[in-house]
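Need residues for this backbone.
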């Protein structure tokens, strides 16, 4: 092997990589601890980046709708202010719409729950009267209340000493969370105001340190990821609004209680892909069960019907088309993401799988095209 400059650089790079791999493997615990600290340091900026990405979706739409010239200096700050006002307005509107209904529901439960329990007790007494063997079985169950109370007192005695420290830790966590949120919000505002400048700087940095082909492919992949996540976010919000509206109208038509509360609740929980509406089902069924069990049964039937419509028609077409992912792979992405990372995995895996699907489709099409070209060339070369 000829030892020219290129070969020497490759050997030097392999040596450095091998030494670094050995050092990291030998001190992996310290490296992990250092990584955790670094993640803690950059957490506010990661939060700010996520906030900027989310706010950029409505901000682009508002910026296009403004009757201002594209080179106007007021266009970007005005669109950002309108976006923040829109988000704050939605939160305030939902709060003032849901909170009074929620308080009314809580106040009504203090009367409906005792009545429900009284009815359950009467039915239980009738059942025990008709089936005395059930009462005899329950009476035969022995509970060591003395031992149970001793365990409860011991737990409270042991835990009382940690109440103050737990309260202090919770307060510090809240303060830390608020600080992280505020820093992230300021960082997100800077990103949104100067996103073109940041984009140019990143492109220059990549062009200076990466080969041209790698730069082009990386920028293309980043653009695909950005478009996919933006379309998914818009599609998911649209699907949640549609589903919440469907439940509100259906419950209103059948004159079931808590139509507005359940509609808004399902609209919010539906942001969790495909399975979030079941949270609204549990809460709505519980509320109706306390008032009138038959209403809970009707609500369950309505939910199953609307869920089938949403799962088979609305969600795959609204969200699936928005990310360019076939309906069957939307279901696979939600299932795998939920198993791996819970709710966050459900939200993230659909656009990630869409990006992976697009990349694999492009590679497969190119390979098939190259094989067709090779076959054509072989046919031409044959005598």
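Answer:
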């Amino acid at each position: 092997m000829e030892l020219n400059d290129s070969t020497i650089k490759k050997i030097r790079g392999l040596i450095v990589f091998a030494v670094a791999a050995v050092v990291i493997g030998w001190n992996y615990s310290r490296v992990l601890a250092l990584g955790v600290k670094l993640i803690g340091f950059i957490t506010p900026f990661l939060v700010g980046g996520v906030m900027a990405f989310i706010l950029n979706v409505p901000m682009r739409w508002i910026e296009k709708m403004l009757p201002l010239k594209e080179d106007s200096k007021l266009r970007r700050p005005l669109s950002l202010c309108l976006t923040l006002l829109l988000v704050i307005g939605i939160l305030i509107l939902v709060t003032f719409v849901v909170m009074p209904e929620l308080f009314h529901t809580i106040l009504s439960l203090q009367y409906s729950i005792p009545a429900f329990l009284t009815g359950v007790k009467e039915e239980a007494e009738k059942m025990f009267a008709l089936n005395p063997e059930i009462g005899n079985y329950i009476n035969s169950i022995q509970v060591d209340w003395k031992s149970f109370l001793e365990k409860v007192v011991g737990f409270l005695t042991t835990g009382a000493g940690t109440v103050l420290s737990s309260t202090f830790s919770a307060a510090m966590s809240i303060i830390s969370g608020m600080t992280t949120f505020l820093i992230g919000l300021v960082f997100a505002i800077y990103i949104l105001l100067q996103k073109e400048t940041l984009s140019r700087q990143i492109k220059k940095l990549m062009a200076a340190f990466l080969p041209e082909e790698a730069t082009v492919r990386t920028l293309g992949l980043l653009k695909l990821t950005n478009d996919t996540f933006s379309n998914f976010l818009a599609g998911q919000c649209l699907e949640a609004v549609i589903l919440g509206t469907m439940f509100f109208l259906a419950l209103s038509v059948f004159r079931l209680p808590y139509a507005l509360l359940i509609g808004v609740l399902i609209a919010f929980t539906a942001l969790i892909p495909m399975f979030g509406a079941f949270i609204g089902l549990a809460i709505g069924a519980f509320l109706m069960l306390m008032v009138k069990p038959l209403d809970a049964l009707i609500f369950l039937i309505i939910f199953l019907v609307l869920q089938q419509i949403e799962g088979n028609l609305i969600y795959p077409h609204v969200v699936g088309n928005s990310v360019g992912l076939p309906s069957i792979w939307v279901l696979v992405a939600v299932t795998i993401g939920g198993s791996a990372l819970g709710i966050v995995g459900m939200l993230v895996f659909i656009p990630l799988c869409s990006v992976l699907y697009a990349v694999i489709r492009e590679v497969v099409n190119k390979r098939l095209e190259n094989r067709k070209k090779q076959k054509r060339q072989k046919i031409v070369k044959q005598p």
